[in-house]
């Protein structure tokens, strides 16, 4: 279980997290939805063990973020995570060397699914192709928790749908938890088991997706419009 309790983070005077608390059960697809600057990336980095909180705690299966918890987490960052000279195959080998849970068979299937070439230079690839490389690198690990920060950014809408369906049907592993940030609630609505709505460092609403839909008699997309201050949607 990923547990976040009373998380606070400041960057100078800017407060990025303002008392965020939640717990994520295993085996779920969780959406982290929110406005620009809501604190989504900051929260994911704190869980990934890349950014210390100023106050509060993150625990992963009861342990504070450390080298050991990083082994349990695959993290897809918003920024590119490879050296500029790397080809797709170099990035795959780099991740294989870094993480003992790299799954060669799955990485081959993902390579084929995304239509990527091992000898293609990543730096010269389109934004959408680079997003696919990042997804390949994150999903090829046999990690219990997969953190995806804006994973579909730059990928065209048609391909996004196919990728989401493939993640759900073919690439998500038993018991794995996928926690992903996105602005596109309508696109991911069908995928999500659980949802967190963030705004200006706070959680506005969170819960089981189906329960929220039943309680409020509307889609997550409509709920999102309802919970966010109009000027910021
Ligand atoms: N390294 C940093 N230095 C200074 N301010 C930062 C830093 N990282 C984040 N912030 C600020 O903290 C706030 C939260 O940023 P964060 O990137 O977590 O939001 P986000 O929800 O991921 O936004 P977006 O959807 O636009 O990517 C923003 O106001 C941002 O400008």
UniProtKB/TrEMBL annotation:
Q: Which GO terms describe its molecular function?
A: ATP binding; ATP hydrolysis activity
Q: A Pfam family for this UniProt protein? A: ABC_tran
Q: Which domain of life is it from?
A: Bacteria
Matching entries from Gene3D superfamilies are given as:
P-loop containing nucleotide triphosphate hydrolases
Q: Does the keyword Transport apply?
A: yes
The ABC transporter domain covers: 2-225
Q: Which UniProt keywords apply?
A: ATP-binding, Nucleotide-binding, Transport
Name of the protein described by the UniProt record? ABC transporter ATP-binding protein
Q: Which organism is it from?
A: Paenibacillus contaminans
């Amino acid at each position: 279980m990923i547990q976040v309790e009373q998380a606070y983070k400041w960057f100078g005077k800017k407060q990025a997290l303002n008392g965020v608390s939640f717990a994520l059960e295993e085996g779920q697809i969780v959406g982290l939805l929110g406005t620009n600057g809501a604190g989504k990336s900051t929260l994911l980095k704190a869980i990934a063990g890349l950014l210390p909180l100023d106050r509060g705690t993150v625990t992963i299966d009861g342990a504070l973020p450390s080298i050991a918890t990083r082994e349990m987490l695959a993290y897809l960052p918003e920024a590119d995570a490879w050296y500029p000279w790397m080809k797709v195959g170099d990035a795959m080998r780099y991740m294989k060397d870094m993480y003992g849970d790299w799954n060669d068979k799955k990485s081959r299937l993902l390579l084929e699914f995304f239509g990527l070439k091992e000898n293609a230079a990543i730096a010269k690839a389109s934004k959408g192709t680079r997003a696919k490389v990042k997804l390949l690198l994150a999903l090829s690990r046999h990690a219990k928790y997969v953190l995806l920060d804006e994973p579909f950014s730059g990928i065209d809408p048609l391909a996004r749908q196919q990728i989401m369906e493939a993640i759900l049907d073919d690439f998500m592993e038993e018991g794995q938890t996928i926690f992903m940030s996105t602005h596109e609630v309508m696109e991911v609505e069908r995928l999500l088991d659980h949802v967190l709505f963030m705004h200006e460092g706070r959680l506005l609403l969170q819960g089981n997706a189906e329960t929220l839909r039943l309680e409020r008699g509307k889609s997550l997309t409509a709920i999102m419009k309802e919970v966010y201050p109009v000027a910021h949607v």
